[in-house]
Amino acid sequence: MSESPVTILCLASYFKGTTFLRAAKAIGCRVLLVTREKLADEPWPREVIDEIFLMPDVAKQPDIIYAIAYLMRGTAVDQIVPLDDYDVLTAAALREHFRLPGLGVTHGRYFRDKLAMRTQARQIGLPVPEFTAVFNYDCLRDFMARVSPPWVLKPRAEAGAMGIKKVHNSEEVWRWLDKLGDEQSYFLLEQFVPGLVYHVDSIVSEGEVVLAVPHQYAQPPLNVAHDGGVFVTRTMRRDSADAQAILALNRQMVVGFGMARGVAHTEFIKADDGRFYFLETAARVGGANIEELVAAAAGVNLWGEWANLEAAHARGEQYIIPTDKGEYAGVLICLAREEWPDLSGYQDAEIVFRLHKKFHAGLIVASPDRDRVETLIAAYGQRFAYDFLAVAPPLDKPPE
Hints:
This protein has helices at residues 18-26, 63-72, 88-98, 105-110, 114-123, 137-146, 170-180, 221-227, 241-257, 290-298, 302-315, 370-387, and strands at residues 7-12, 30-36, 51-55, 79-82, 131-133, 151-155, 165-167, 187-191, 195-205, 208-217, 231-235, 262-271, 276-282, 328-335, 351-354, 360-367. By secondary structure, it is of the alpha+beta class. Strand 9 (195-205) and strand 10 form a beta hairpin.
């Protein structure tokens, strides 16, 4: 085992991943952060970061390669970790260039590019909604003649529901493509499948899923993003048939997509025909306070475990798999009318987390009793809609 500390270089195009930074430092790593100049004044935990490097654009090539190459003249880097979805492919390109472990460009695309992940999912036998690339117009016409609308026009590289347009006929599709112009090939067209949406949040070590927690959204994230409402997700009953079905599909995805180690947030939909379909995956911790949700239900912090996993691999040590405590939790979040909404009226003992964010209201409840979580989530969802809820137009891209 090397006597020098493991050096982890983190990329952050947005302010997130502070738990990872703290956890990496706590286990003795040297922590470097590369972020945007615009984020210089964010409350980064500077006491745990050995050096911060600022760039106008973390993703711009070849600038980022030049910058990291200059850094590496005097500093040996063991691992590169993306703290945001938008950094996954940048990290993959850097790993390829500097021959570092982790997802490379091809496998990185399976966790970032919605077209690549669907194509790979279909190749490994995962059921996926019908889709087509927006390359060849004859193929596009064939798809629209063969697959009944509505469809969704999706950007291949945006996060979550951003930029997704629901379209109801071919004329709408052609109008959107006219607006997109040269950007058309960065989109795909997919069959809209109504149904219940689920997510599995996983830790992967040496190509195997070593911890996975199944959850179900109250409403599909696309609906919340476009129509407004209270975002709700909660842990599924662990031994239910639906939970076991999506956990099995998640394992198939991890193996088929070639993830050796890391964390993953993967979504599935249960359609009206009763089948589960793969929707998308990401090589990151889920957003919308899913970090705290998993911690409340399983007793495991995904960011912290990701740091443990990377450090163990770099040191040549065996990763110690955390124990899932097997409880249940639910999260509610909504845009709020007030800058700092007052949640003092919510005082049940099961509340384990309160969101502190401008113009947002949010809570997490947890209990060994899933029925108690369901009861609280249902009651709080109605109260949030009355007490706090504000609605804003959906974003096509994240705010700068």
